[in-house]
């Protein structure tokens, strides 16, 4: 078959392996400890070198498998450093800084994501990072952080870990090339999809066991329909992500269009699902004791890493041949 | 995961495109009545003449037995060329009755009907819903009692599209007296010219009269018209679901991608404007629907609940797109036009074939495993 | 009591009387006949002279009571000529054309609503009207129609009755004064509220009697929650309408603000309720045999008569004394 | 229908405004713990000193017995001056416990508690919800067994706001063994310093710790602390609903009008922009909420279902306003600030005090008369 939207055997294997690693080394329960994620196990697994050519230390997979793995990273609420890392590696390679690219891919240089806020930069979970990737609309910038003084900043709900840096930045280089931005957005939206699916699953599981009025709340149509809505949106987003990942991998003409669609849809779906997940959990969902709120906060983080909306600037892959006026 | 079309596929795409651009009617056909029938028949006949009818049907039954890839390309080219809506009065025969006969019919039934369907000679309608069993199909009460080598049918059906112009009907009736729910039903071929049938057309809110109520007063149908086993009609009705959910829905789903492009062309969208934001979101959703459509095509088997996911997404997106059109049209929204007609028709998307509420129940119960609704 | 949001005795009486008239002379069942409404009975009732001073043939009520009555006109799907009429009367009076104003208020001159469409005007249910009120954004124009040739135009769903006029118009006068536009919008939104409430009531009644799966569909939570949503929105809109009507009557400083809020909210609520009403009715709701679709089409008509959005141009009646920066 | 404020009302408004602008703290108080208690007590004590505590309470109990008009004006001025949130740790005592004691308490209970509440000397919390009965309050199982002239209480409560800093609790318990649903409950005053009480604070998703789980292990409460009749606690709990739904909610509801103005000031809204459209709609909804609030104030009686209508509209509007703020904030949405904190807190609006789903059930069943949910 020349077309097939199902996962192939290799894809199933890498997903199974990544899942096993994540369940062992990064269970959600770790979040209660409020410690920064140690990404060593992921780096050793090769998660940051997935799409690198094998001669550069990569595992020979493609952006498709990398996106699938990032879906799992989203599910497991892995620090956004795991996103900054593959973007930094690609950016460094484009800048001809291959020594940086290789160290980053191997996980020996710590990279964090950063976003501009007024006259400063907010580093996300970057207290100890040596490099930063600034996600600033339609460009990404690689900066050196080693010598910059960081000021701790209380983050959203006291659980997003932030620090602020000011003053002249030590810029390694920047990139405004759409293809890198599309790759970046693909990985970010893959994580958003992971969150959208995980919050659906968490809500459904809870709805099956939580009882009110003498029966499981999942037997109430309002809850059922909430869950159905979460499923439909996650399914649509997931199909779109697969389509976009294939298009990016194969450098198809519609790659930019598909990623633009993802960029709009993914944060919306992830937000809606996380909100519904919290609502279905009731009081416990609003507490810091359930994990639902961590998904919410991560969605807020991830959406800041998406580049700008280009949805109406791109030709559609499926457009009419004649204008509607010609037809009627 | 791959979407690699071969050179052969691409050549097929070009031939489909060229044929469609040269042959597809330039104007939308009539909405209802005999003129709608004549228009649809002429178009299907023209398709058939050049080998474009039943492209997904097996070759042995007169189709072209094309693989999924080429069917995708056909429908993509079909909607891009603005060929006539697939949801015309040949929809049931091509996408539902025909495939059901292929799967469950006798040789005689196949021999008689399949070619007529492909050529456009016979028009079919569907007799499933009843006044008391809209969303609850299994509660239907129209009966067929065996009398010699015939069934004698009494009762009524409703929301039967094109009943007034159809030659045959796929009719689901309760043949086992006293049976409950899905049991004891049969799927029969009903000749719409039979004595005892009364068709009362019902105008819809868009002003078109393409559905009807059908009354059966001692209608005699030969037992040889039963498709599959007697009393096994529910299973027969379910066999085409996969086909329906894959191929048949494709044309409708892909058409939304065209509609949103038309709407973007129609609207003036300064960057950052409210309408621009809305159209960008609708365009993204149409892209997601297309991706879902393709994903489903390669899924095996496609379950009823897969269908519900896609149906629900499609229906609500279609309604949103048409509502946005009404906002964009301004005062022209008050006149009858293709946009306003389609807008009004779109209200049926979340009702026909199982309401949005029923689709959500199916998703919640069958995919997510939430507890079943408690029966009364 | 100096403040009271309840209806007083006079208001209850006029509503009861109008309701009785409408039930007798304008039952919804008349719509099946597809004939233009004869507004004589309403004119004789004084519906078009409600807010006129008594010395001018009015009944001495105010815009508050007029708005309440228009809520009932909306419920009964009275032709939009019943809206064009009171606006024409007010506009003629402002133009000093008192003879026109009096004939219109008495119902002896027929007036229809008109909206600009490209280079023409669409008259709504105006086949026999002698005057037209053009609702064109932030202005209203009174025109004479007698000598203009009208071309019948198929209307929305073949049930909105339209005709088109072209060429130079015989303009009697125009007005861009906000107070007249606010009065007009108040009456239009009152009708939209009437529709929002009527479609809620129609849906609830149907949900109680229609059975599926062996019980009334109103016992399903999905249907219940649809109905609850209709109620909440209608209740909010209704409270806002009362607030705005009082403000307009008393020429309060916040009148323009309240009407601006109505202008945004009323079509949205009316649409949502009518859509839900159709959905709850299932197949029959989509047919032309139930009345739900008439509500839908009337909402489309009424929204065209609303003047432009001014919501963010007006000061709020309840605004902070200090900016948030001063506070923190 | 009229909204005519008298000269006397206007003079009152001016005096309220001047006092608030001169006295209301310029900064938001601490979120939780003893410092939040100290802040709230200092503010209430200051209000009381100048006659602004319990303005709606009857004069005989230390209030000012002001009519509805003046209470409206007070809350309007209160939110405009950005005085401290009414939903601090004095909310339950002023708006719930106090009015309940006024309506149902004994002379001794009133004499002991009411003045302490008005002055800010005693802080109350509410002990209604339990782990197994969140939205289903009537299923509560914490028991109080009569033992001589005491009740002996065992069980647990959850989502009790400010339990860690409260002096007293309004505690709803099952005092009639074996009773079901609303029957056999009692409303008692529980001294939070009683032996056998353990408070486990629970951090919420906004990082504040203002609610808690409370465990009762053979806690002895004098029978003289029962408010109303023994076993008649449900009725007692319901008496304050009217008060709560009228006056208490007003401050919160009107505060949204201020928040939307702040948001409009914060955002840059070019005409026709997507964000401008969204803010215009939110502003219109806030205006509608204000109108609903006023309407409800003049309604008599205010039923539970009136409360549900308003509660639901308020809750969802509040969430939409706060979500819009997050969009507008851009990268600042990642930092902890008044806006982001309030955004996270807003998630409780559709959960606390009966979820949005429960409110919709109440509206559908009690206002619209749709059939009751079938019990399991």
UniProtKB/TrEMBL annotation, chains A, C:
InterPro entries per the UniProt record, alphabetical: AcylCo_DH-like_C, AcylCo_DH/oxidase_C, AcylCoA_DH/ox_N, AcylCoA_DH/ox_N_sf, AcylCoA_DH/oxidase_NM_dom_sf
Cofactor(s) needed: FAD
Family annotation (Gene3D superfamilies): Acyl-CoA dehydrogenase/oxidase, N-terminal domain, Butyryl-CoA Dehydrogenase, subunit A, domain 3
Domain Acyl-CoA dehydrogenase/oxidase C-terminal: 186-303
Keywords recorded for this protein, A-Z: FAD, Flavoprotein, Oxidoreductase
Domain Acyl-CoA dehydrogenase/oxidase N-terminal residue range list: 8-104
SUPFAM superfamilies, alphabetized: Acyl-CoA dehydrogenase C-terminal domain-like (SSF47203), Acyl-CoA dehydrogenase NM domain-like (SSF56645)
Statement: the UniProt record of this protein carries the keyword Zinc-finger: no
Flavoprotein in keyword set: yes
Matches recorded under PANTHER family: ACYL-COA DEHYDROGENASE, ACYL-COA DEHYDROGENASE FADE28
Family: Belongs to the acyl-CoA dehydrogenase family.
Name of the molecule in the record: Acyl-CoA/acyl-ACP dehydrogenase
UniProtKB/TrEMBL annotation, chains B, D:
Cofactor(s) the protein requires to work: FAD
Record carries keyword Oxidoreductase: yes
Swiss-Prot/TrEMBL keywords: FAD, Flavoprotein, Oxidoreductase
Keyword Coiled coil: no
Acyl-CoA dehydrogenase/oxidase C-terminal domain mapped to chain residues: 232-368
SUPFAM superfamilies in the record: Acyl-CoA dehydrogenase C-terminal domain-like (SSF47203), Acyl-CoA dehydrogenase NM domain-like (SSF56645)
InterPro entries per UniProt: Acyl-CoA_Oxase/DH_mid-dom (IPR006091), Acyl-CoA_Oxase/DH_mid-dom_sf (IPR046373), AcylCo_DH-like_C (IPR036250), AcylCo_DH/oxidase_C (IPR009075), AcylCoA_DH/ox_N (IPR013786), AcylCoA_DH/ox_N_sf (IPR037069), AcylCoA_DH/oxidase_NM_dom_sf (IPR009100), Mycobact_Acyl-CoA_DH (IPR052161)
Every Acyl-CoA oxidase/dehydrogenase middle domain range: 125-217
Superkingdom, taxonomy of origin: Bacteria
Residues annotated as domain Acyl-CoA dehydrogenase/oxidase N-terminal: 6-120
UniProt record similarity statement: Belongs to the acyl-CoA dehydrogenase family.
Protein name per its UniProtKB record: Acyl-CoA dehydrogenase family protein
């Amino acid at each position: 078959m020349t077309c097939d939207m199902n996962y192939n055997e290799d894809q199933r294997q890498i997903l199974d392996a990544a899942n096993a690693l994540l369940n062992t080394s990064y269970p959600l329960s770790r979040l209660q400890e409020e410690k920064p994620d140690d990404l060593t196990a992921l780096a050793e697994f090769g998660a940051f070198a997935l799409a690198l050519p094998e001669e550069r230390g990569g595992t020979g997979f493609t952006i498709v498998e990398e996106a699938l793995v990032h879906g799992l990273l989203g599910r497991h609420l892995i620090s956004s450093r795991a996103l900054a890392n593959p973007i930094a590696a690609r950016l460094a390679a484009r800048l001809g800084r291959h020594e940086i690219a290789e160290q980053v891919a191997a996980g020996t240089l710590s990279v964090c994501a950063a976003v501009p806020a007024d006259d400063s930069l907010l580093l996300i979970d970057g207290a100890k990072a040596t490099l930063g990737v600034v996600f600033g609309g339609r460009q990404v910038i690689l900066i050196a952080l080693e010598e910059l003084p960081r000021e701790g900043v209380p983050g959203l709900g006291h659980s997003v870990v932030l620090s602020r840096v000011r003053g002249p930045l030590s810029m390694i280089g920047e990139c405004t090339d759409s293809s890198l931005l599309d790759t970046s957005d693909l990985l970010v939206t893959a994580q958003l999809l992971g969150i959208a699916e995980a919050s659906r699953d968490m809500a459904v599981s809870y709805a099956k066991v939580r009882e009110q009025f003498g029966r499981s709340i999942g037997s109430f149509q309002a809850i059922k329909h909430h869950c159905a809505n979460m499923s439909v949106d996650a399914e649509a987003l997931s199909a779109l992500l697969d389509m976009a990942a294939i298009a990016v991998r194969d450098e198809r003409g519609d790659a930019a269009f598909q990623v633009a669609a993802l960029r709009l849809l993914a944060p919306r779906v992830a937000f809606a699902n996380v909100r519904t997940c919290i609502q279905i959990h009731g009081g416990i969902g609003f507490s810091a004791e359930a994990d639902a709120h961590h998904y919410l906060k991560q969605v807020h983080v991830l959406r800041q890493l998406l580049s700008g909306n280009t949805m109406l600037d791109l030709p559609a892959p499926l457009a009419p041949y004649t204008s509607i006026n010609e037809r009627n | 995961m791959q979407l690699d079309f071969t050179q052969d596929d691409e050549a097929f795409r070009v031939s489909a495109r060229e044929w469609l651009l040269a042959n597809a009617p330039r104007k939308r056909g009539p909405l209802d009545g005999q003129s709608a029938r004549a228009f649809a028949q002429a178009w299907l006949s023209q398709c058939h003449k050049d080998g474009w009818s039943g492209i997904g049907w097996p070759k042995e039954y007169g189709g072209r037995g094309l693989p999924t890839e080429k069917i995708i390309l056909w429908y993509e080219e079909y909607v891009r060329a603005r060929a006539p809506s697939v949801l015309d009065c040949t929809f049931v025969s091509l996408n539902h009755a025909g495939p059901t006969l292929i799967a469950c019919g006798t040789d005689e039934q196949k021999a008689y009907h399949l070619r007529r369907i492909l050529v456009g000679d016979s028009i079919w309608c569907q007799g499933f819903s009843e006044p008391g069993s809209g969303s609850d199909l299994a509660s239907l009460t129209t009966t067929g009692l065996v009398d010699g080598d015939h069934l004698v049918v009494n009762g009524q059906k409703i929301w039967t599209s094109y009943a007034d112009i159809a030659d045959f009907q796929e009719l689901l009736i309760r043949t086992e007296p006293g049976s409950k729910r899905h049991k004891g039903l049969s799927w029969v071929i009903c000749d719409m010219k039979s004595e005892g049938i009364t068709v009362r057309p019902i105008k819809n809110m868009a002003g078109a009269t393409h559905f009807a109520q059908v009354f059966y007063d001692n209608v005699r149908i030969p037992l040889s018209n039963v498709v599959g086993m007697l009393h096994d009609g529910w299973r027969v009705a379910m066999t085409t679901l996969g086909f329906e959910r894959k191929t048949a829905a494709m044309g409708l789903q892909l058409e939304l991608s065209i509609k949103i492009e038309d709407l973007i062309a129609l609207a003036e969208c300064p960057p950052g404007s409210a309408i621009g934001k809305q159209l960008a979101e609708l365009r993204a959703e149409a892209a997601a629907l297309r991706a879902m459509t393709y994903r489903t095509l390669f899924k095996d088997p496609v379950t009823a609940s897969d269908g519900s996911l896609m149906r629900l997404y499609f229906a609500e997106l279609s309604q949103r797109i048409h509502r946005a059109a009404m906002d964009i049209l301004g005062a022209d929204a008050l006149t009858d036009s293709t946009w306003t007609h389609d807008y009004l028709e779109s209200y049926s998307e979340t009702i026909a074939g199982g309401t949005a509420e029923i689709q959500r129940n199916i998703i919640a119960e069958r995919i997510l495993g939430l507890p079943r609704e408690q029966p009364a």
